[in-house]
């Protein structure tokens, strides 16, 4: 239903549509709507996935809270920086997942963090 509207004007995907400033992506992530989210991300720019709601939380934080790892994987594929963006209360997505006891999501995000550390620049002492 939303797809024809968003295809006509993809910029609508990056506008807040709720009182809390959530975008369509925030709502799709929270609702665990994998197919819709995948199609929506095709219409979005990489930076659009970093858009926060009024509390500072990205849609990736919502995905972390939902515990649906497939959504988090799809979002991270489009924007690998998402696990590093702090949300409400300056909490990382892994913290959000841990607070709601989503073990599978914590495990996935921990692996993302290790990959980030291992692939990042080497830190040497001076």
UniProtKB/TrEMBL annotation:
SMART domains according to UniProt: ANK
InterPro entries documented for this protein: Ankyrin_rpt, Ankyrin_rpt-contain_sf
Superkingdom classification of source: Eukaryota
Signal peptide per UniProt: none
Pfam family, any one: Ank_2
Gene3D superfamilies xref list: Ankyrin repeat-containing domain (1.25.40.20)
Protein name: Uncharacterized protein
Organism: Anisodus acutangulus
């Amino acid at each position: 239903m939303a797809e024809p509207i968003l295809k006509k004007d993809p910029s609508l995907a990056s506008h807040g549509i709720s009182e809390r400033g959530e975008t369509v992506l925030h709502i799709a992530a929270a609702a665990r709507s994998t197919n819709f989210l995948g199609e929506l991300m095709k219409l979005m720019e990489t930076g659009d996935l970093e858009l926060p709601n009024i509390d500072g939380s990205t849609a990736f934080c919502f995905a972390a809270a939902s515990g649906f790892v497939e959504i988090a994987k799809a979002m991270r594929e489009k924007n690998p920086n998402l696990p590093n963006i702090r949300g409400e209360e300056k909490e990382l997505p892994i913290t959000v997942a841990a607070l709601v006891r989503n073990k599978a999501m914590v495990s996935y995000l921990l692996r993302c963090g290790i990959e980030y550390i291992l692939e990042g620049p080497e830190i040497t002492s001076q």
